[in-house]
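re the bet — no i am not wrong, look at it urself. input seq straight from the record:
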Amino acid sequence: MKAKRRIAWLLSFLMVFSLIMGTSKMQVFAAGGAGETATFVIRESNGQTGTVQYKLNGSGDFTTANNTPVNLEGVTSITIKVIPTGEAQVNQNNSGITGTGQPATFNYDALISESGWTYNIQDNDGNITFTIEFDNNDGTGGGSNPGGGSNPGENVASYSVDFGTGSWIVGDVTVTADKSGEQTLFESDIITLTDFDAETMEVRVVAEDGFSTTLAVNNNQTSISAKTNNGGVPTNITFSVVEKSSEPGGNFDGVKIQINNISTGANGTVMYKFNTDEEFTSVTSTQANIPMAIPEGATSITIKASPNGDYAVRRGGCQLYVDGENVINEDNIDDYYEALIGEGYVFSLNEGLPVFVVEFGEPEIDLWYAISWGGGNVTVENGQIMYHRVYVGDVIYTTIPGEVDESNKIYAINTIEGDMEFCLRTYGVAIVGGTDLFVMPDVSDVYVDFVLVPDYGYQVTDIITNETESLLDEFNPIEQISTYKFKYITNTNVHFNVMFLETEDIINVGSGNTNITGGAISGGENIINSGNLQMDVDEVDKNTVSDIIKEEVGDFDAIFLNIDLNQIVSKGAGRDNWTTPLTELENEVTISLDVAGYDSNKSYYIVREHDGRCDRLEATYNTTTGKLEFATDKFSTYAIICTDEQTPGGEGNGGGEGENVYYIDLGTGSWTVGDVTVSAPEGMSGVVSMLDTETIPTEMLENFDPDTMDAVLIVDENVTLRLNVDENGNTRLADVDGGVEALPPYGATLTFAVVEKSSNPGGGENPGENVYYIDLGTGSWTVGDVTVSAPEGMSGVVSMLDTETIPTEMLENFDPETMDITLTVSDGFVIYLEIDENGNTTLASTRDGVSCHLTERF
């Protein structure tokens, strides 16, 4: 059965290759155009000849080349194989490729290998000419077959060698090779070992057919040619370093062969042959389970089974025990079974003492069909493809590996490669009159569910079959998101290719809107991993919103909105979408709204009502995009409020008159000052809303020492305000050093922290002095043709008392007659400072009586 699955896999692979290379949507290399050709020029020199063969797109058998040009229309690759005659070799000096869009040369090692060398056609190739010249290697013609030995044509064969990790543990020693993984080697290629001990270790190469031999090692180096016995080496071998063992032979007790017949009588014959034997010997029932002596020098045994009449070798009854353990399992049963009923299964006696169990009886027929996506349960470009279930009618079968339902005679598995294979099983006579008879089960009622998950920002737009025919209409969407139901109506393997198309998020602005004319959303990749977002923004009348948000907004003019957010995944083929409402998110997204009549001289904030609770959100105007922006993680009813100054209102659902609400970030509610940990009351952590007149916290801070510690509010990276703390460790926002007017605008989020006491944390040593953070930039300014510089070392952000001189000495090149010193506040307001004749000033010496504004904004 493995042969059938291998063939099915090969056909699927060729379908995948053909589809990828031949479908315009998925091309990797260019295809040749109309009129483009490839020509093979074959030259003979010094009487030396050879043959050149080729095949197109990597499929079919090789064709012998002649001087007739080959049509390249639709061709994406050419595979070339060169076979020198006798002692002829390829003259690399006079062989080459012309007509390519970029420099190209032959890979000569591959060119003379069994599989040949492949040239992939490029976008800018034209008519291509491959020139191959045969010559000798006697010093007159320059022939030089790569991989060749001292004699012409020697050692040109290549081997596929699996080195695994390239590391082996023998006893207490770790031996490493200079190669790992699967390597293609010529017979004379050198393999270097580290820490190899020839006295206790040996190098062994084995093949799947039971072949096993050792390689000679000299000075920690070996090669495939360094065999200790005669005969060739299979093309595909596994290389390993093992503990040295005695030569196999008479030291074995014997081999056992057990025959089981599940029906009356002898249902078949088992035969065996040691590698020292000329012919097979049959095992009779009386000999079964009796150890057979192993001839001296025998290194392997071949066993094969032949059923009688209408009986068959039972696949499930085939077993092989080595040291009491059955080594046949689902991973290798197919290789074992096919060899057993074919040319024979070869077991290397170096592996141990075998006990074979062969069972004869009525045959089982397994018909395997594969549905593949060129890699199976894999992540593909811009999306993921997964398998869900197989079912017949209303009976559902999961995709658990190896799960079998005998009554309904169907089961499904996911192979290691990830492609979906399912088996339709029936029982009956397999051989009638010497002819194989396979009873085809009915597949007209078989369905398969597929889960096709596009990445965020992508949608499924098409599904292509083997014949490059769109089949999306045949995939019926079902309730589970991204899941399609496909009716399997054929007795063949099927290969699909899914197309994911990049798409934009959808913003719907209500047709009745008068204030909101457009919008956008960003950060969607942080909240969904598939499909797109759809945001609906609709203005609503104040009379239709809840009393909760009305009370929170109060007398302010507001724009009331309903904002809904959904995840949408397209069902394709003109159908609607899978839609998932998103009301509460794990992460925030940023909403941008085009607000008609926006006034950049005013301030805006957002009130959001969700599940009976109101929250106030900061809003900023992006002068680049012209949009009002705010971050949110909940979607329901919103109000946009415009104000000139800090706005009165209450915390949550209404507060006391004249009180302002702020959002205070307490972090973890724990701060370390020196060796002391100060903690807020239990449960007080994270962001909390608080009136400016409310005590922070509601009871004394544990371990707070007002003599050595300060409680501060961090407004931003440049502004820190100190709070006045009483003897019990309590404080209020209104107790900010310098007055409540020093707080930022209403609705801001501030960070509360306990820090080591500073001489000027938000205020001077003397009452009435305030500290500010002044950004001096580079400390250098150009005014007309003059450069004015602050004293050396004064640049960037510096803290400064309002009574402190700016700078502490005269600004170099400052001219008070022609220059001003200004402070630009965060809202764009400019403050002019009074300057003395030396160019010095203080923050307290503001012109035009704007010192109050300075105090409010810092």
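see?? The chain has a mean pLDDT of 74. told u. also The helical segments are 2-22, 108-111, 333-340, 547-553, 851-857. so pay up
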